[in-house]
Amino acid sequence: MSRDDFLDLLGRLDGSRTIEDLERETGLDGEVVREVVEPAVGWGLIDEGAVPVVSPGTAALARLEDLLNDLLEDLVLTGPFWRRILERPQRLHPNVFFGFGLENWFLLSRESGLGSAVQTLAENVDLRQALDDFDRRGSRHDDVAVRAFRSLGATRGDLLRARPLPTTAALIKMLSWWARTDPLFFVATLGVIEERLEADNEEPVARCPFLAACETVGLTPGFVEPMRAHARAGAARRHGALSRALFARMPGIDEETERSWQAKAHLFMETYAGFCDGVLDHYSDPHRPLLRLCG
Predict the structure, then answer these.
(1) Which of 31, 70, 109, 170 is the most exposed place for a label (fewest CB within 10 A)?
(2) What is the distance between the terminal CA atoms of the chain, rounded to a whole angstrom?
(3) In whole angstroms, what is the distance from residue 205 CA to residue 49 CA?
(4) Which SS3 state, helix, strand or coil, does residue 293 take?
C-alpha cells in the first residue's frame, strides 16, 4: 500500500463506512484494508461505528432482577442454610442465628465504603444526594445492629476486632471490585435479596423468615428486637427504588453489557449461597467461639 493510499484510507474512517464500503471506494483489496483497520480497533485507536442495539435502563434492570430472583430461588433459598432455617430451625444451635447476624454486620459495616465508589457514576446532583443519604442512613442502621450483639456481651470494639468468615470475605471483596469496576451491576444487586423476601406485604419485616425462625426457637429478645429494627430500617431504605432511580437516568444499556451482567449474576448468587452456607458450616459447631478475634 502506498503512502497516499494509506492516508486516503485513514481519511475515510469517519464512522459512516463499513469495511466493504472502504474496499469499494479505495479500490484496495479487502485483506489489505483489514490489515489496517482491525489492529487499530484492537488497539483502541478507532471504534466500531455501528449504532449499538440498546435498551432503556429500567428494562435492562428488570431483566437482570428477574434473573437474580430466579437464581436466588435456585441457589440460595434451596441451599442447606435456608432449608434448615425454613424447615427445622429448632435443630440449629443458637450460634447459627447469632453468626448469621454477625456475618451480615460485616457486610453492612462495609456497605458505605462500597457505595461511595458508585458516586463516580452519578453525574446528576439529585442522584448524588440520594446516594449520600443512603450511605448516612446505612451507618445509623449499623448502630442498630451493634445493639443486638451487646445483649450477647459483645461491644463495638469486639466486633471491629473480629474477622469475617472466608466466605463472607469473598463476598465483600467481590462486591468491592464490582462497586469500582461495574457500579451499575453493583447497584442492581443491592435490593434483590431484601425485596425478593419481602415483596407484596404492607409490613415486610413480618415475613422475614430469619426473624420468624428466631422467634420459633425462642432467642433472647435482646438480640431479636434490634435485628427486627434493623430489618425494618433496611426495608425502609428501599434498595430497589434507589437502583431503579439510577437506571432510569441511564441513556441505554447495550446487549454486550447485559450479557456480561448475566454471567456476573450467576457468580454473585453462587458466592452469596456460599456466604449463607458458610454460616451454617462454621457456627453449627458449639465449640467454636462466636467472635473470631484478631490479635
Answers:
(1) 31
(2) 69
(3) 50
(4) strand
